[in-house]
Request: fold
Amino acid sequence: MNILFTICGRAGSKGFKNKNLKIFLGEPLVYYTMSSIDLFKKKNKDKYNIDISVNTDDENLINLAEATNLNVITVRRDANLGKDDTPKVSVIRNSLEECEKRNNYKYDIIVDVDITSPMRTLNDIENLVEKKVNNKNSDIVFSVVGSRRNPYFNMVKDDNGVITKVIDSNYVARQQAPKVYDMNASLYAYSREFLKNENVISVFDGNVDIIEMEDTAILDIDSEEDFKLMQIVGEYLYKTNEGMKEVKNNIINLL
Reply:
């Protein structure tokens, strides 16, 4: 089975400038993502044929990726894929098309690993790939964490000054309400056929399945405040969580 891991990073960022190039707890942020992929590749080298692609319009990010020993496939992003309203699915599709063209073989699963959600483990990636392989009906499997708020119970909306529950319900305890999750923007595993369909612009255009990851309180880095808070949380977790510690300690092996 052929698996393509994609890492996508746009130059700049209006919400948090150059967030993909930040130094996170002493290491380039992107190296945490690359380290987790490297661990999976090493452990599963006899099981899967694995390639890694970096899709970006940022030469600095390309330099960081190519400084590693991972033999990444660099896809220089076209200007029309670097707009504010460009769906990420389109960028991942571009990585798939370029890598299949260059390698002259097809991929069975495409796994996108987000740069700005660095706190993941090898086990998280293994769970994702296993779920995607075993669930033949899924077009995409992505990662989530349990939500702290529930729209059936303790979330409200303001509709022209009228405050009501987001979803009308009669639940009097959160435990009674349906289980809900936050998408933590960390891991996505796509079927090739689904991703190749140019009418697909959202993960919800197909059959969806999920894996649950540990809740780290911060979903992903999208602001300077997120970055500061995630460093505080990360400093603790990289010391106390063996899986996350393994990812951080493996970074030295990338260079």
Q: What stands out?
A: The longest strand covers residues 181-191. The chain has a mean pLDDT of 93. Residues 224-240 form the longest helix (17 residues).
